[in-house]
Write a structure and sequence with these properties.
heterodimer, A: alpha+beta, Fumarate Reductase Iron-sulfur Protein, Chain B, domain 2, two-stranded antiparallel sheet, B: mainly alpha, two-stranded antiparallel ribbon, 63% helix, binds iron/sulfur cluster, binds FE2/S2 (inorganic) cluster
Chain lengths: 251, 134
């Protein structure tokens, strides 16, 4: 019996060699338990060792294998060939990012934005009261519920790739960075909201978003960054009203 | 600090991006319906003095023309669609937790639709019915 095969149409780009990206088609064995990443690895091991792509865990955890599969941003370790078979599978680098080589995109912009929103617990009382026995930051399961979903983000950037606002305005802080800021703002142990708000409340933060909502559709971890952004808009508006009505208040 | 990688190319967004999937398309429809709603409201407000002066029974006036009637019908359909999308986003926008569990988004959406129905009922019976002599 002849082995079934499937075609992969892969975007190639070799800096210093190619003036623009080209498409190269490879024929690889088809197995219905293979994901796109398996097929790419097959190409690299058996057909063309120069094909470049990123991956690490092969189990939907590290967030490094995101690519456009048939035009939709997906984790290639979770996108099965059987979703396209017998049609050919189109594999392109994540949309909206500069391409470094073949399927590898430059993620510096996202890394920078992520650090800007201070995605970690900030406490103002640590100098006077270090954490330890007698000073634990306790949390109830209900309080954990308030932000847990937004903490599931694996920084895969599929949401940026699905966002037409980010495509048109690369300065936009973007879905995942705002979702992570929201995660810490909603954490009962955190006191850093006032430090994050100038960044996420700026014109390049939440107000760029026009609620297309595709970020939440493509997110492999059900983070729902669109909800985080809309809720932050509401919270910021509330802050503004409060500061107008009660200018003597804290904010 | 490492030196930033020199990016090779950044593909531009195509003009037809909003046709590339159904949800992008529906997003565009949602945004466009708001333009109709705004246009209708602006025209209505500018016509208000004539309307209070009895323009509906004046065949020469804008608001009694078939064109305005057709535009109003189309706008009504668009406004209803826009309201539908807005109310369905309530659960996304509002997070409420009472006790250990957050209130389900679907319940918040439903509350909006119920409030909408009630408001329509009140407006119809308190303002419109007396106005048309019912
Ligand atoms: S929000 Fe979702 S899609 Fe965006 S980076 Fe995090 S896990 Fe990926
Ligand atoms: S390889 Fe880690 S998420 Fe796909």
């Amino acid at each position: 019996m002849t082995e079934s095969t499937i075609k992969l149409a892969v975007t190639r780009y070799r800096p210093g060699q190619d003036r623009e990206p080209t498409v190269q088609t490879y024929t690889v064995p088809y197995h219905d338990d293979w994901v796109v990443l398996d097929a790419l690895q097959y190409v690299k091991d058996n057909i063309d060792g120069t094909l470049s792509f990123r991956w690490s865990c092969h189990m939907g955890v590290c967030g490094s294998c995101g690519m456009m599969v048939d035009g939709t941003p997906k984790l290639t370790c979770a996108a099965f060939l059987r979703e396209s078979y017998p049609r050919e599978v189109r594999v392109e680098p994540l949309a909206n990012f500069p391409v470094v080589r073949d399927l590898i995109v430059d993620i510096d912009d996202f890394m920078h934005k992520l650090s800007e929103v201070k995605p970690y617990i900030i406490r103002e009382d640590l100098d006077s009261l270090p954490l330890g026995l007698g000073h634990e930051l306790r949390q109830t399961p209900a309080e954990l519920e308030d932000f847990k979903q937004f903490g599931m983000c694996i920084n895969c950037m599929l949401c940026y790739s699905a966002c037409p606002v980010y495509a048109m305005e690369p300065k936009f802080l973007g879905p995942a960075a705002i979702a992570l800021a929201h995660r810490y703002n909603m954490d009962s142990r955190d006191q850093g909201r006032n430090q994050r708000m100038p960044v996420i409340g700026s014109s390049e933060g939440i107000w760029e978003c026009t609620f297309v909502g595709e970020c939440s559709v493509v997110c492999p971890k059900h983070v729902d960054p669109a909800a985080a952004i809309q809720r932050t808009k509401l919270a910021t508006t509330n802050d503004w009203f409060k500061s107008m009505l009660m200018p003597w208040g804290n904010r | 600090m490492h030196a930033p990688l020199a990016p090779g190319y950044r593909p531009a967004l195509s003009n037809g991006w909003w046709l590339s999937n159904r949800r992008y398309f529906l997003y565009m429809v949602r945004e466009l319906t708001a333009v109709f709603a705004a246009l209708w409201a602006i025209i209505f407000v500018t016509q208000l003095p004539q309307i209070t002066a009895g323009a509906y029974s004046n065949p020469a006036s804008l608001v009694s023309s078939p064109l305005w009637f057709a535009f109003s019908l189309v706008s009504l359909a668009f406004v209803l669609y826009h309201a539908w999308t807005a109310f369905n986003a309530t659960g996304t926008l509002i997070y409420l937790r009472m006790g250990p569990k957050p209130i389900a988004g679907g319940s918040l959406n439903a509350a909006m639709f119920i409030a909408w129905a009630l408001a329509t009922f009140v407006i119809a019976f308190v303002f419109v019915t007396p106005a048309i002599g019912g």
